[in-house]
Amino acid sequence: MSANKILIVDDEEIIVRLLSMSLRSDGYETVTAGSGEQGLEVFEAEDPDIVVTDIKMPGMDGLELLEKIKEIDPEKEVIIVTGHGDIDSTIAALQLGASDFINKPVRDEALAIALERAKTKIEIREKLEEYTENLEIKVAEATEEIRRKSNFQRLLIKSSTDAIVAFDHDWKVVVYNPEAAKVFGEPAKEVRNKMTIDDLYTPKIAKIFKSVTKADENQQIIQWKENVINTKDGRQIPVRYTSNVLYEKGEFVGTVNFFQDLTEIKRLQKELVQSERLAAVGQTVSGLAHYVKNILIGLKGGSYVVDVGIKKNNTEKLITGWETIKNNIRRVGNLTQDLLTYSKQREPEFEPCVPNDIINDVIVLVEDTAREKSIGISKELDSSLSEIVADPQTIHRSLLNLVNNAMDACLEDEDLTKKHEINIKSYVEKDNMVCFDVKDNGCGMDKDTQKQLFNPMFSSKGGKGTGLGLLVTGKLIQEHKGVIEIETSPGDGSTFTISIPLEKVKVVDIN
Amino acid sequence: MSKKVLVVDDDPDVRSFVVTVLEENEYIPLVAQDGVEGFEVIQKDPPDLVILDVLMPRGSGIRLYRKLRTDKKFNKIPIIMFTGIAQRSFLKSQKALDEFKGGEVPKPDIYLEKPVEPEELAEAVKKKLG
Question: Do A293 and B16 touch (CB under 8 A)?
Fold first, then answer.
């Protein structure tokens, strides 16, 4: 729309006519009035784009007309025609919002320039209005888009199965999703924008996340780790967590933490372990039954041989049969002791003892059997190792067990060209551990066998083992605060090393 | 003349029991404590019957059994399996080995699951040797 309709107001009719003619020839449409009152009427009826009015008129003068027009439309362009040098009126017109002034007598060029200026102003204002309107629409659209996006993100965070907690740079909680409320047991309205990291987390957990920002900016993401959350309502929740530090243009703006509730997974794991344990017990019982059956076979066979000895008065048979029976009674005794040891928590009985003497005792016990099976037994004893404080029973039973296993490993060996050998070694390591090596060059073990060594029920000896030996040894050594280590390779043999803390005997000064 | 019976078992208690049963029934007992030693005895002094354990260190009973059954010189010697292993498991293992190696090794003449009464063992031996 172009500003085209002009209202001319002047009490001198001739001026009105001249101006009107001049403007029409310039292409404007004109309406006219001979007084202020009439000017206002015409203004309301015709709604001109620009008003040109004389200032001095009888009745309603130009200033009053200006004031009335501005009341109706403050944006309307009103050009005031003033007498030469009438400064007071000019100032008053300026204050009332006149757009321009031209002096009397009105020259065409001056009027043309003033009208052009007014027209430009109108155009600019119209454009501005258009821009403003466009801008408003665009802002509204952008706001809607932002709202949609932020809504989407909010829903995303809200519906996440991970607990998400974010802090601003002052460690105040700004994001806290429903899953987080579940994990931490605090409703969102109590937490969001109210709590800080120290209010929400226990000091230990808070420290972990706070420390991350100090790390290198490139390593701001911490790997998934596990921990236990103590909630305010007293629950303990196992979680996996990770954290990410948020930077904006290189500046630290906050941290976001993700937690996954592992309660269900842990429960399932526990169930699995439980069912595996039940299966293991089943297998242990079946292995034990087999072992007990073998003892029974021995006892029955032995008593038959004794019967024959009695009937035939054959001392040799009596002795053989009786040996068999005694042998199997001993096996029952050992089994019972192993079962008791395994099933009960036992405190080691510490007393001064000489480890090398215990090794010699063990060797005496197995010597005969070893010779019979052509297995050599050698020892390398650390002579500096004198009296220590330990449980001699533990050392004795563990070593005997390992040596018996070593003999079985030699007997299982398929390589018959080998001269089988068992070596027992004692030594002190790092000044604080007493170590015993039991080394054989028997069949050795593959990885699978090695993995199952300390499992209850596991025996590589068929019906000839209870599967309790190493289990019991492991338990005894553990109770003694020691460790068992194994080095083995199939076909080359195994070395079992027992290490227990070195406790020297305190010399009591009688004085 | 009395017949010779070889007992192959790693358990000395079992050996002394079987030896006594054999003596009581007037057979001549030979003993070996594992599969390898058992085969040595058989080569040196072939027995009329073998009483064989299954699970033994150094050359199991399964290995010796298949060796004897596939060796023309020894495949006529009757074998009594005498073991704590269930017969079903033993036969299953044989079937698997047959499939793996090809051919078929005949089933044992008699299979006894420990424990057995002395009379039962004696009867089994008599059935084969008369």
Answer: no
For residue range A396-438, list pLDDT tens digits in order: 989 998 998 898 888 878 777 889 999 999 999 888 899 999 9
For the domain that residue B81 is a member of, what is the CATH number?
Answer: 3.40.50.2300
A77-123 pLDDT, tens digit per residue, is: 899 888 766 778 888 888 888 888 888 888 888 888 888 888 888 88
Class of domain A160-261 as given by CATH: alpha beta
CB atoms within 10 A of CB A365: 15
Rounded distance between C-alpha atoms, residue A321 and residue B118, angstroms: 14
What is the spatial distance between Cα A70 and Cα A79, in angstroms, rounded to a whole number?
12
Cα B96 to the center of its chain, rounded Å: 20
Candidate from B18, B24, B84 with C-beta closest to A293: B84
Contact B84 A324 (CB under 8 A): no
Q: Which residue of A has its CA nearest to B115?
A: A297
Question: Could you tell me the residue range of the domain that residue B80 belongs to?
Answer: 4-129
Q: Which of B10, B16, B34 comes nearest A324 by C-beta?
A: B16
Among residues A385, A276, A292, A371, the alpha carbon closest in space to that of A333 is found at A292
Which of A293, A304, A413 is nearest residue B17 as measured by Cβ atoms? A304
Domain range summary for chain A, segments of one domain joined by +: 5-130, 160-261, 266-327, 351-501
**CB pair distance less than 8 Å for A293 and B57:** no
